[in-house]
Design a protein that fits this description.
about 350 residues, alpha/beta, 6-stranded mixed sheet, 3-stranded antiparallel sheet, 11 helices, globular
Length: about 350
């Protein structure tokens, strides 16, 4: 399928199973090399296929070509026809998304909020992926040592702890700074809207939770826990155990918010994250799946302008009635994975597909 939507806001309309979410997933995939739906790229292949390939042309200050694919040999990516490091690839097309999978940010496990944090950090500064990679590699080596527990384990653990302490200090600092900026941007974004919501709070709880989390102080905590880790065979401290609290009037939002309020909060977090990107000179595209689900017309009209920073918005809906709420968007119709000009409005785009 080929699609040339152009700049501005676009609504993809179609029934369940028409391919709306798959199209958003394809855009997200080629922008980030990952899926927002599954960590296993092989699950993104069509039925009875074992591979896929995506291509995108990005118009900006400089024209760029992105290619991403999956085959039996694994994932591959190219920028302007050449294989590049992932950080260089991620610089090209910043993206912010919201889908039903992002509800986990509000009421899912701590790892879901950590993932949200790290996505924000990397989208703002793609080079930060190197810090995450260093930490994850050292963490996996430490876990393997604790599983093995042979005569050299203690000495080897101390060596890996030094690497973990260094990357932990940098990762904690990045996460803390990002969350502080995200909260400030979230509150200012909300203040400019017509939405009336309880007071929202974001709190970062790092592991280890130290007053001054330097590499030296973190190493001291790792040393203190070494005996227990050997006994229990697992890693007891580090940023892989960080938590983020999202509160309304001081109470965890996941405990008191309705389904619609959780979605609204997720959309606000995405809008704030996108605003941070835009303010940093990385104006993103925004992908919003089932934008009107769980939201009444008034709240949808209030939320939509919060994404005005975007170079492009692509939103989906199953309901033609959304046209009355968002008449400024261009409309497209999806049927069985094929996209074409909408047949419902005099504002239909004439772009050929």
């Amino acid at each position: 399928m080929r699609w040339e939507p152009g700049p501005g806001a676009h609504l993809l309309l179609g029934s369940n199973g028409a391919g709306k979410t798959s199209l958003l997933e394809s855009i997200y995939l080629i922008a980030t090399t990952k899926s927002f739906r599954t960590p296993r790229l092989e699950e993104c292949c069509r039925r009875e296929r074992t591979d896929f390939a995506l291509n995108a042309t990005v118009e900006g200050e400089a024209r760029a070509s992105l290619e991403l694919g999956w085959s039996s040999t694994g994932r591959w990516r190219k920028l302007n026809g050449s294989s590049v490091e992932v950080a260089r690839y991620l610089e090209v097309l910043p993206v912010v998304t919201w889908s039903s999978f992002d509800l986990k940010v509000v009421d899912g496990a701590p790892r879901d909020r950590r993932r949200f944090l790290d996505q924000g950090i990397v989208s703002r500064s793609p080079a930060a992926i190197e810090v995450l990679s260093r930490y994850r590699q050292a963490l996996e080596q430490k876990r393997e040592l604790l599983r093995r527990r042979d005569v050299t384990t203690t000495l080897d653990l101390k060596a890996w702890n030094e690497l973990l302490a260094s990357s932990s200090a940098e990762l904690i600092a990045r996460r803390c700074r990002f969350l502080e900026e995200l909260e400030s941007t979230l509150l200012s974004t909300l203040a400019k809207s017509t939405l009336e919501l309880p007071a929202i709070g974001l709190r970062y709880r790092p592991s280890p939770n130290l007053e001054d989390p330097t590499a030296e102080s973190i190493m001291g905590e790792f040393d203190r826990l070494l005996g227990r880790e050997l006994e229990e065979g697992r890693v007891l401290s580090g940023p892989h155990r960080d938590e983020v609290e999202i509160t309304w009037n001081g109470v965890e939002a996941s405990k008191i918010a309705s389904a619609g309020e959780k979605k609204l909060l997720g959309l606000l977090l995405s809008a704030a994250r996108g605003r941070l990107l835009s303010d940093a000179g990385r104006r993103p595209i925004v992908l919003l799946d089932d934008i009107d689900a769980e939201l009444d017309r008034r709240r949808l009209r209030a939320v939509w302008p919060l994404f005005s920073f975007a170079s492009q918005i692509v939103a989906t809906s199953c309901h033609d009635a959304i046209l009355e709420t968002l008449p400024e968007a261009r409309f497209w119709r999806l049927r069985k994975g094929a996209i074409g000009c909408s047949e419902i409005s005099s504002q239909e785009p004439s772009t050929s597909i």
